[in-house]
Design goal:
317 residues; 14 helices; globular
Length: 317
């Protein structure tokens, strides 16, 4: 029960505050929110490092979840505002940085354990890095949000945005794309063990191939977007994935499984970056609102893994 609360409560806190923080980011004090978020994120990492029981860890993570919205999401929104004409390429760069972190994270943790450290030491390093990035952000010129409106007016603008067909289309694409990104990643190990009968070594190798292929795909996407319009690439890659994905499920656990899994990881590159850039494009001058409405869509999309799990159990997977 304690583990469930530690994992669930911070997510609920972040989900409840993210739309409100996003709307506030379209007002005149975005820089202040970003910097406060950076400080609180560093504090959260430090508290995580010294947590002495599940409840202190819960408090640390509950501070960090909304703080990451203010720190990370506003940094992304500011990047989108700096160069509106290059949002697709900049989101691709942003995603590539995230893929580097996904690949490097397990390596760093392994090295820390080998050197006698552990997750507490890594949390301390993360806190120091967050403070350093916060100081750098304070010295970096950011787009100035000059809009003067009440918080209530900003909320009404966000509510109107949620009724626009173009905005809803990009939100739907983001959530649908996530089925082949984070949701697939979350179910991959479970599927390989329970359905394909893979062992720990095979599962670890498959996850490594998946994340490594994703990193290569995100790097290649920068080259592709110099030659092909983002939406056209998205359509072509979706068609290709429609053919490859069933094959991955059919041959999992065989010698052909890993090459097909790598191909799938390459093909879904850009499935977050391009729809996210499209959402920002649909709300020019209101990148904070884009964060807010995207988080509302994320709440709806969060029910999909649960429904998939229930459906899989019902058919015996």
């Amino acid at each position: 029960m304690e583990v469930g609360l530690v994992l669930a409560v911070p997510g609920f806190v972040g989900s409840a505050l993210e739309p409100l923080l996003g709307v506030a980011g379209d007002m005149a004090h975005r820089r202040g929110l970003l910097l406060v978020g950076g400080v609180l994120f560093a504090l959260s990492a430090a508290l995580t490092a010294v947590a002495w029981n599940p409840w202190s860890l819960l408090v640390a993570l509950a501070v960090g979840n909304p703080a990451s919205t203010a720190f990370v999401s506003f940094a992304q929104a500011s990047l989108m505002d700096l160069e509106p004409a290059a949002r697709g390429r900049n989101m691709a760069r942003w995603t590539l940085a995230g893929s580097l972190g996904i690949v490097a994270g397990p390596i760093v943790l392994t090295l820390a354990v080998a050197l006698g450290g552990g997750w507490r030491a890594i949390s301390i390093v993360l806190a120091l890095l967050a403070l350093g990035l916060t100081v750098a952000a304070a010295r970096t010129p950011l787009p100035v949000v000059e809009r003067r409106e009440s918080f209530r007016d900003a909320l009404e603008q966000a509510a109107r945005a949620l009724r626009r067909r173009e905005v809803l289309r990009w939100i739907a694409l983001l959530e649908a794309s996530d089925l082949m990104l984070d949701v697939f990643h979350a179910f991959l190990a479970l599927y390989l063990v329970d359905v394909a009968g893979a062992g720990p070594v095979e599962v670890g190798l498959a996850l490594g191939v998946w994340t490594g292929a994703g990193l290569v795909g995100d790097a290649l996407l920068l080259v592709v977007l110099q030659r092909v319009e983002g939406v056209r690439y998205l359509r072509a890659s979706a068609l290709a994935v429609t053919g490859v994905f069933p094959l991955v499920l059919l041959v999992s656990g065989t010698g052909a499984g890993l090459p097909l899994l790598a191909l799938l990881g390459l093909l879904n590159a850009g499935w977050y970056a391009i729809p996210k850039a499209g959402l920002y494009d649909a709300l020019p001058g209101r990148s904070g609102t884009a964060i807010a409405v995207g988080s509302v869509g994320g709440l709806a999309g969060a029910a999909v893994p649960l429904l998939l799990g229930l459906a899989a159990e019902r058919v015996g997977l």
